[in-house]
Amino acid sequence: MIFDCDLLIIDDLGTEVSNSFTNAELFNIINERMITDKRTIISTNLSLEQL
């Protein structure tokens, strides 16, 4: 479902538990959506350096 929807909105990125599993899953989701030209909106209070 995350890979197939036309628009995915991720709210408050960075508030979840950050470990190697969640980082890898987030990368896989964003990477797959970029490869398939799907739109993704991400909101966060973190700076680029903190991400």
Main features:
single chain, 51 residues, alpha+beta, two-stranded parallel ribbon, 1 helix, 2 strands, 31% helix, 16% strand, globular
The tally of beta strands, per DSSP, is: 2
Structural class determined from secondary elements: alpha+beta
Gyration radius (Cα, Å) is 11 Å
- Level of helix content? 25-40%
Quaternary state reads: single chain
Q: Termini distance? A: 25 Å
Taken from the alpha-carbon principal axes, the silhouette is globular
Overall mean pLDDT: 93
Low-confidence runs of at least 5 consecutive residues: none
Tell me the series of helices and strands, N- to C-terminal. EHE
User: How many domain modules?
Assistant: 1
Question: Please, how many helices?
Answer: 1
Strand order of the largest sheet: 1-2
Main beta sheet strand tally, sense and closure: 2 strands, parallel
Strand content: 15-25%
What can you see in these coordinates?
- It is a single chain.
- Helix 1 (20-35) links the parallel strand 1 (7-10) and strand 2 (39-42).
- The chain has a two-stranded parallel sheet.
- The chain is α+β, with helices and mostly antiparallel strands and 51 residues long.
- It has one domain (7-42).
- It is globular and about 25 Å long.
- It has one helix spanning 20-35, and strands at 7-10, 39-42.
- The model has no long low-confidence stretch (mean pLDDT 93).
